[in-house]
Amino acid sequence: MTGAGLLGYVGSQYWYTYHAQRSLEAHWERQAAAAPATDQPLTRISIPKIDLDAIVVEGASNDQLAAGPGHVTDTALPGEIGNAVITAHRDTFFRRIFELDQGDEITVERNGRRFRYQVTGKKIVKPEDVSVLDPTNDAQLTLITCYPIHYIGPAPKRLVVFSKLEP
């Protein structure tokens, strides 16, 4: 009985995530058709190497991360000077970011513009190590998820992938 309940819970979470992304995709399409954007522009992240294409939500609460990767409030916006930070759950959108290596490409689209980032490195940190959120003097994109990726329960560490905006 517990197994069926667990399967039902996981299934409902994936169902919610799927439908949230479809709704965000429709909003993305409407936003692209309207120029200039009249509300907070959406952001789309694409990482071809790991088959990721998702609409990013603003904020990183559990509810927000259930809908998509979340832009950490008070960090730079993608494409701007500074450290733009996007986080996502390890069992959904960022399931495969551990596969990223130096030189891999990340594309971010926002407000009609496309920004290309190149991965510069990655590291494992403790959850308390918030230095990975620190502002930078150049345009960077930092991706964060829990680690180990296949850990059962609350993961004890964080995987951080760093990238720089290509000129």
Helical segment count: 2
Largest sheet: 8 strands, mixed, barrel
Could you tell me the strand content as a percent range? 25-35%
Low-confidence regions: none
Rg over C-alpha atoms, rounded to the nearest angstrom: 16 Å
Helical content (DSSP H or I, runs of 4+):
10-25%
Account of the protein in words:
The chain has 167 residues and is of the alpha+beta class. The protein is 23% helix and 34% strand. Strands 1-2-3-4-7-8-6-5 form an eight-stranded mixed β-barrel. A hairpin with a 4-residue loop joins strand 1 and strand 2 (52-58). 29% of the residues are buried.
Question: Topology, please?
Answer:
Layout: H1 2-33, E1 43-47, E2 52-58, H2 62-67, E3 70-71, E4 82-87, E5 105-110, E6 113-125, E7 139-147, E8 157-165
Parallel strand pairs: 2-3, 4-7
Antiparallel strand pairs: 1-2, 1-5, 3-4, 5-6, 6-8, 7-8
Summarize this structure briefly.
The chain is α+β, with helices and mostly antiparallel strands and 167 residues long. The protein has two helices and eight strands; from the N terminus they run H-E-E-H-E-E-E-E-E-E.
Features:
167 residues, alpha+beta, 34% strand, 2 helices, 8-stranded mixed β-barrel, 8 strands
